[in-house]
Amino acid sequence: LPRMSSCLPNLAMVVPSHGLRALFILTISFVFFAAVIFYWRTGEDAEGQLYSLPTQSRCAQFLPSPPSAIPGGPPPPPGDVFFVETSERTNPSYLFTCSVESAARTHPGTRVMVLMKGLANGNASLPNHWALSLLSCFTNVEIQPLDLPELFSGTPLAKWYSQSEHQKEPYFLPVLSDACRIAIMWQFGGIYLDTDFIVLRNLKNLTNVLGTQSKYLLNGAFLSFKPKHEFMELCMQDFVDNYNGLIWGHQGPQLLTRVFKKWCSITSVQNNMSCKGVRALSPEAFYPICWENWKKLFDTISSSELHKLLENTYAVHVWNKLSHGTRLEITSQALLAQLYSQFCPATYAKMKKDS
Asked: Quick one: angle between helices 345-354 and 94-106, nearest 10?
């Protein structure tokens, strides 16, 4: 009995020590689990977006080495680069994101404006979407609401936009985009690009310029004009005077072609022609792949063939209306995959991660 009782103090010491150890391990496990859950819920959503991290940390994942203007270099010519989203969408696609990223990288000293109609409803901050987070990491990219009444104010387009019956037309959104681009060129000047371009080189040396899509037709997917240019004023007037929202392209490529012919007093458009200070570049400048051959964007091509094809190209139009439903193997040597890899590497990395 004395021997047994002598063991009791030791046992009393052991039991609390085991209990404390178990409680300690349980506490540590709970804290770790809670931290993981907190990080997962606030840091990364179902698409792998990182919103709660500090901007610098988040951007380091998207842009390990952000592009910057060459120190000591000459300032870029005045004028912003504009992209426009006329629908209510605020979730940019891979191609949209690549378009803006490629423009931001090739114009590091120029403001790149992304105007989105879906942000014009009083949203105080940008929606949580990986593309908007990525693009916000570029110091020269600004994402702003598209205020259409303000944009069209003081132009012939204001009355047209106020007539609500146009919104019932089958091509209203493309027509609205056509109106926006000529109004932006008139009001602010600079460069306008559709959101299905991949920009290969700086465009600031192009002024009062548009591109020829084919032998007979101009296209407004790229425009570069000084503000208040008479050519853009004529385009706005033609928009309302000859309006027909029921014919595809009537308010876009066909309008620009009509006005250019009048401007130059010609009956047919020729490649790389210039008159009265306005120049129409040949198709290879912005439309090296014509719309009839859009499937070539998904064909395998060697790097040397690609270089030769795009030797005189400023930006590649991807014809999203035709190509958007086609699956792209992002790690392949397809023409489009190589463009993503070279000219919008942050978007490319996200596409690889998601594939």
From this structure: 150
Query: Which residue type, as a one-letter code, is found at position 272?
Result: N
- C-alpha distances in Å from residue 97, one per residue of 197, 208, 249, 336: 10, 26, 25, 14
Integer Cα distance of 219 and 236 in angstroms: 15
Non-local CB neighbours of 7 within 8 Å, separated by 6+ positions: none
The model's pLDDT over 70-108, given as tens digits with 9 standing for 90+, comes to 555 666 667 899 999 999 999 999 999 999 999 999 999
CA angle, 162 then 180 then 184, to 5°: 120
Containing 218, the helix (H) or strand (E) segment is strand 218-225
Give 154-191 pLDDT, tens digit per residue. 999 999 999 999 999 999 999 999 999 999 999 999 99
pTM of the shown model: 0.82
Tokens representing 264? 């130059």
Looking at the chain, list the stretches that DSSP marks H as alpha helix, in order from N- to C-terminal side.
Answer: 2-43, 55-62, 94-106, 130-136, 148-152, 157-162, 172-187, 230-241, 253-264, 303-309, 320-323, 335-343, 345-354
* Helix intervals (H) in 188-252: 230-241
The CA distance from 221 to 162, in Å, is 25
| Alpha-carbon gap, residue 242 to 222, rounded angstroms | 22
- Quote the CA–CA distance of 81 and 202 in Å, as a whole number: 11
**Helix or strand run (H / E) with residue 285:** none
Give the integer Cα–Cα distance in Å for 322 and 336. 14
Give the phi and the psi of residue 6 in degrees, each rounded to 5: -70, -20
